[in-house]
């Protein structure tokens, strides 16, 4: 009983608040208590985030929201005395109170100074984990670049910089009593001239950069990495796999800085052949030899709340089935992923599938959602405008190429449509991962893939690789 009296109740609503009991998964004592309480009070609602026997849980009356667990520390408790208090206050003000699994597992190693590989599902909160580490090492009295976050796309860079600035802002009603932490987004296509003057005048403490822009700045001697204490590479497998970015990344990891002088963090939801990668990290001196691999849910690489479906269509006749799906699903918001146009098709002067689909939806879709486009070939400003529109939170249908599939966080997203089958299982995982992005929520999200009959076996391969089941839908 004692344990229950000490449970922290979060400000969330339950249908029967007085009959709610909070459980920890790890304490046998509590587990036994759970069984005895259930038998004596069958109407009692038990809540556990972990593997409590589902048959005993009245999940239908479980309201959405965070679930606190007896004995499970809050983010503040994990970071106390290591992360500045104003950051922790701000973090709670934003709504980050309880840690997600990856944060709970990784923060002790991160805050103890160990190099880490954060390997956890999409939407699991890896960004906050590494940003808390960064804020634990930043010395605001020093005007030098102390932390670097490398990202593969401008979109992800803009987002990470935004969260970093949000955490550094003073909590509401609190006078700023400390020098604030400056964050620079150094992303391809940005006004590099302005960045160069900024770096010369007063270097920012945190730089969020794409690999190409950072190398450009370093090679022109506007920035040295000697004062960098933390280097994060987000979506690390993507950057290592990108022929355009890999050689610059290697230089940044070993030539322009040394793993002995910095703490290195790699993050991704997918690290294919992770044992090999871990070996390479040490061998190639990308990390120190005692690097920690924080691997969350290895047997469930995708969020379990995702519902996967597929529809078999005729080639070149996918638009109408897509429209019917959207009309039936009535999504809150959705992304329609389309393959990038091939060089051959460009040379032949064909219109890209994205434009064709946008034109079709603009004339045929009569629902309430705005139709927007986000693709690699758009210029920097148009891409930024599209994302800004999307983030306003009103409903939209975003027609996008894989440029939107990595890291982009759009919490209100309920539906993903793969208009074209992704090229690999990893691409499927990241596209699907643009939904189900509210930790502690039980909101159901759907991924629907439109395939031609010959592609069924490819999708089956993805199902085996990623350990999920896909239901056939007949329209
Ligand atoms: N402790 C927390 N409590 C509540 N919400 C959280 C917490 N940590 C993160 N979030 C929210 O979870 C969402 C996903 O977080 P984040 O973007 O860091 O995921 P990720 O693990 O980096 O995913 P991906 O692999 O797709 O990049 C964000 O909207 C973020 O605000």
TrEMBL record:
Ranges of residues in domain Helicase ATP-binding: 107-289
Cross-referenced CDD domains: DEADc, SF2_C_DEAD
InterPro entries: DEAD/DEAH_box_helicase_dom, DEAD/DEAH_RhlB, DEAD_box_RNA_helicases, Helicase_ATP-bd, Helicase_C-like, P-loop_NTPase
Superkingdom to which the source organism belongs: Eukaryota
Domain Helicase C-terminal span(s) in chain numbering: 318-475
GO molecular function, one term: hydrolase activity
Leading EC class: hydrolase
EC number: 3.6.4.13
Keyword Electron transport: no
Catalytic activity: ATP + H2O = ADP + phosphate + H(+)
Protein keywords: ATP-binding, Helicase, Hydrolase, Nucleotide-binding
Name by which UniProt lists this protein: RNA helicase
């Amino acid at each position: 009983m004692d344990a229950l009296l000490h449970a922290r109740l979060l400000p969330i609503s339950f249908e029967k608040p007085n009959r709610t009991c909070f459980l920890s998964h790890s304490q046998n004592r509590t587990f036994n208590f759970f069984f005895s309480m259930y038998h004596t009070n069958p109407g009692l609602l038990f809540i556990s985030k972990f593997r409590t026997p589902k048959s005993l849980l009245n999940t239908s009356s479980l309201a959405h929201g965070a679930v606190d667990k007896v004995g499970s520390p809050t983010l503040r408790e994990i970071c106390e005395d290591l992360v500045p208090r104003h950051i922790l206050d701000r973090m709670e003000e934003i709504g980050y109170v309880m840690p997600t699994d990856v944060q709970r597992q990784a923060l002790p190693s991160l805050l103890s100074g160990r190099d880490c590989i954060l390997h956890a599902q999409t939407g699991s909160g890896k960004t906050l984990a590494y940003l808390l580490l960064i804020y634990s090492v930043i010395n605001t009295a020093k005007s030098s670049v102390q932390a670097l976050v490398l990202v593969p796309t401008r979109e992800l860079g803009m987002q990470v910089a935004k969260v970093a600035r949000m955490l550094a802002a003073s909590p509401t009603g609190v006078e700023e009593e400390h020098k604030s932490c400056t964050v620079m987004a150094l992303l391809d296509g940005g006004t590099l001239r302005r960045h160069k003057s900024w770096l010369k005048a007063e270097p920012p403490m945190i730089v969020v950069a794409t690999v190409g822009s950072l190398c450009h700045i370093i090679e022109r001697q506007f920035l040295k990495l000697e004062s960098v204490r933390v280097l994060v590479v987000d979506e690390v497998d993507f950057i290592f796999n990108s022929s355009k970015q890999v050689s610059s990344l290697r230089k940044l990891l070993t030539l322009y800085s040394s793993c002995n002088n910095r703490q290195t963090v790699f993050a991704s939801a997918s690290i294919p052949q992770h044992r090999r990668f871990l070996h390479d990290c040490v061998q190639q001196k990308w990390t120190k030899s005692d690097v920690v691999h924080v691997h969350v849910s290895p047997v469930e690489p995708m969020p379990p709340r995702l519902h996967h479906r597929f529809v078999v269509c005729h080639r070149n006749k996918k638009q109408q089935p897509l429209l019917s799906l959207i009309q039936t699903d009535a999504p809150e918001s959705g992304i329609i992923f389309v393959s990038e146009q091939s060089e051959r098709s460009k040379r032949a002067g064909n219109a890209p599938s994205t434009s064709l689909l946008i034109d079709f939806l603009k004339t045929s879709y009569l629902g309430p959602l705005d139709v927007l486009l986000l693709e690699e070939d758009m210029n920097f400003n148009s891409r930024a405008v599209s994302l800004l529109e999307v983030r306003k939170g009103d409903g939209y249908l975003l027609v996008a190429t894989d440029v939107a599939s990595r890291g982009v966080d759009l919490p209100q997203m309920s539906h993903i449509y793969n208009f074209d089958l992704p090229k690999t299982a990893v691409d499927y995982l990241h596209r699907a991962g643009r939904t189900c992005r509210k930790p502690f929520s039980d909101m159901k999200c759907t991924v629907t893939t439109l395939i031609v009959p010959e592609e069924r076996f490819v999708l089956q391969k993805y199902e085996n690789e990623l350990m999920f089941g896909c239901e056939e839908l007949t329209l």
